[in-house]
């Protein structure tokens, strides 16, 4: 088995000497799409994450006028079109708040600077309408359990559910989280997220990598009471926690189908499910975090059981990384997705290109283009999503421009 894996990897790496496969894909004959003849490249995901938490990508700062916020948003959509991308993944619930007029949670502080203050417009509704007008898909990105990037409930809006239900909240690692072990929490966060799905024709619902929080040394996530009440049928607390997240994923998938049939459901987890030293089914990596063990997210199971429509593992490492080689992980995820109905896209660390403190590979503007060339050798890989929009716009060393020149010569519709 190892020899087969290595020969496949060697073959993929050899392909880096030429862009023939990528160019061949770009020159693929047209096909008929749902709206009529399509003359662009074969369908593939070409996405970008548009993060709102802490004003990472947009709005550029809190407190801008509604007109200025809208202008900035439109600029990101127009940039996606210019780079021949086809999907924008917009973060609409960054910290148990909302970028739409939600009856369940307050307006996001990242709009006005004050949580709960009406920004004077509807960002999500506008984003969906303007994205569709440009031929872009709009995937609504939700963070299920993060309440705040601090631990003081008193700083939340007076109407915030976490203030009305303080027993739902757990402080951990300097942040505040909803407790995934409480059935009433799971029901509430689904209700809050599905409100947006019911209001707007979003093309997909998107979760990121935050389920149970990333481990913090010396700290314990205090869910003792919930475990005592609900964990009795499980062999361990970890198994109970994984089941809590499994239930969220399965119930959310069913809810989306009920509220807006045809809307897809995707997840973008940390790129390592488990290391092979932990589990023989895992990847040949030595990552310090494993989603199965540390975030209690059994992402491999979700793919194999088709609980989600697509997965975008965050493969934020360069080719040849000693602990987590991009090439090794592409191969592993391709084998996981093989034979399933779950689409595989790859999350790309555009933000590392040219960034201070990164390994030499990330100072090479061709590194990301090499990723796409390598991935083209795997039929299971149906596209890529880039983190994130601010970096697409700035592109300090031309890494995104190189991807576009080498791989996105023609427009492409996203896979359906």
Automatic annotation (TrEMBL):
Biological source species: Streptomyces cellostaticus
Name recorded for this polypeptide: Glycosyl hydrolase-like 10 domain-containing protein
Signal peptide: 1-22
Keywords: Signal
Domain Glycosyl hydrolase-like, residue spans: 44-362
The keyword Signal appears for this protein: yes
Keyword Signal: yes
